[in-house]
User: Fold this.
Amino acid sequence: METTVTEPPKKRLRAPRPSFVPELVYFEPGALEYEKGKRIYQWAQDQGIPLRMTTSHNRITNFPGDSELEQYKIAKRTLVVGVRKTLKFDTSKPSAEYAIPIATGCMGHCHYCYLQTTLGAKPYIRVYVNTTEIMEAAQRYIEERKPDITRFEAACTSDPVGLEPITGSLEELINFMADQEYGRLRFVTKFHHVDSLLDLNHQGHTRIRFSVNSKYVIKHFEPATSSFEERIEAAGKIAKAGYPLGFIIAPIIWHDDWEQGYGELIEALAAALPPEARTQLTFELIQHRFTKTAKSTIERRYPRTKLEMDIEQRKYKWGRWGQGKYVYPDEKAEALRMYLSERIFEHFPESTIDYFT
Assistant:
């Protein structure tokens, strides 16, 4: 059941404008009992965004629009503010030991994204206001595993940088992890809104990775994300702020002139990064893959996509959980791996490629 709290008149947004400004904000029970929930409520009210209460995000099913596609677009512009009840963290291999849950859903419209299937029926964005309880749960995981280092991935189901101007959750996690001898934080982003993180005393315990790609891929398959140039400029800022830095090149897509596109990417990164950032630099390389379910969903959501998903041109690869995916055949996959590896080590000989998959 949904009840309208208030729908203030529309106002001009104040500068600086967050990377994501929702068209509608829902609050779940208990969210306004937390300081963060109250702050987000006040922010949304100041922006003139319609505010509603809901007994559960699962009851948010009807979005405006005459078609599934129109309803999907509105859902992607909807924010749900709630309390994270389950404090048992999922594993997050190979990136980290655990996923630390601060948000679910993403404002980007990347055609290939796995969230198209995992959140297919619930494409709205959720943020959690009980970050103190989430950090307390992380502390218990750290205590259980020490003296081993425990890594936490904050971007498994969302892009938290795009939400940071609204939530401030990454700042909280970075400050928390700075005090953890045996804890480390990691997250990846396609957004450039990192200025609020630059002056934090992170102690080198947070690795920030940027999801980067060729200009062709960003232009055709990553709408509503930061540009090629914006991401690289932001990576330079993070490097100069002393954060451990990494890059995920994903999905690596075989397209016309792909060598030129990915070569240009590596050269641009080399030009942007100061020498001191190169010794701990990491790369994660992930070729484009899809499932039959994802293919069907993507073709409904983005009917004009140029994304190649020809099953006849792919290799079927079984996953860890018994569900297979379609990847490039071995010859293409090896060509992509070899070319990118050679370019990376040419420009960053001291870097590490964590994996190619």
